[in-house]
Design the sequence.
């Protein structure tokens, strides 16, 4: 699974996710990546792209929940990502990346590593795999 | 006012702890290349929706990660891809599933968002729409890599469905994670054993 989240110079957020799914999956299986609110979500607060165990991400409506706890609990972006990864996955394993309309970037995962990269206009840039 | 633009990319959660340094380096190079592609697009004032499509297309085209070329294989050894895209300001969205000849599924998802009355098309409907829209289509074999044929064989021997982050116990040369009884959707994976 691959994904990208962006907030542009005008504060507009967008998210995209694409995948081949799981190795040895049943034909016809749908994962979280195409499900809006599960693997992908963007609104006027943030944008989120998820990856990992699709069935757990779907049941946790993971991407939408990041926006929801920002909107209703007033959490900041990284706190929202940490909350959702910690509280919404049950025993599932997953990771996500997110940006907010004010130009923040965040990620979180409970798996062994996640391939990720992030950058902001003030010059911050990070590419990583492990914790 | 915000702090300006920001971008993040991912190539999948869950990595074999013993992934070789060489493959880790290849993955980081691709992530860096995609970040720089997105950064220069943002500096040229492309909109967020254009940038996410541009970057995910690059990730789909490179076989390193599980999407587009290099996608995971079904139990039948074929590729069925899916993608979605969402534009925050008006929460417009588009998604496709079960596509097997569309070179860049994320661009078809965007066309669903912009050129169809729906938000999600799947399987033959998505393929018909792709033909109608004239997107680039290739043979299913284009998406299949030798690595993944080998991975599928191991997954079948282990009677497992291989998540990005879990490897079958059978000896993948880089495999190390012991896989306990895998549950999916609360059920044991072994229900797929007949596969």
Sequence:
């Amino acid at each position: 699974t691959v994904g990208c989240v962006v907030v542009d110079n005008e504060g507009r957020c967008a998210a995209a996710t694409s995948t081949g799914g799981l190795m040895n999956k049943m034909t016809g299986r749908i994962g979280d990546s195409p499900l809006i609110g599960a693997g992908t979500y963007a609104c006027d607060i943030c944008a989120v792209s998820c990856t990992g165990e699709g069935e757990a991400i779907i049941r946790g409506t993971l991407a939408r929940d990041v926006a929801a706890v920002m909107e209703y609990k007033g959490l900041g972006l990284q706190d929202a990502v940490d909350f959702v990864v910690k509280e919404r996955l049950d025993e599932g394993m997953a990771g996500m990346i997110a940006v907010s309309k004010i130009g923040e970037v965040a990620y979180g995962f409970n798996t062994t590593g996640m391939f990720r990269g992030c950058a902001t206009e003030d010059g911050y840039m990070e590419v990583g795999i492990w914790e | 006012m915000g702090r300006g633009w920001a971008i993040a990319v991912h190539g999948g959660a869950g990595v074999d702890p013993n992934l070789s340094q060489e493959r880790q380096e290849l993955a980081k190079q691709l992530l860096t290349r995609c970040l720089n592609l997105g950064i220069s697009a943002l500096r040229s004032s492309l909109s967020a929706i254009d940038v996410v499509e541009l970057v995910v297309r690059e990730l789909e085209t490179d076989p390193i990660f599980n999407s587009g070329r290099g996608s995971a294989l079904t139990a039948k050894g074929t590729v069925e891809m899916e993608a979605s895209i969402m534009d925050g300001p008006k929460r417009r969205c588009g998604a496709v599933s079960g596509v097997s000849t569309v070179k860049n599924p994320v661009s078809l998802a965007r066309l669903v968002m912009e050129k169809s009355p729906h938000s999600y098309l799947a399987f033959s409907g998505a393929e018909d729409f792709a033909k109608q829209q004239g997107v680039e289509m290739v043979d299913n074999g284009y998406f299949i890599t030798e690595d993944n044929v080998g991975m599928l064989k191991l997954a079948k021997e282990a009677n497992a469905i291989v998540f990005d982050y879990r490897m079958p116990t059978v000896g993948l040369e880089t495999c190390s994670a012991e896989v306990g009884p895998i549950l999916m959707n609360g059920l044991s994976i072994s229900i797929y054993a007949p596969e």
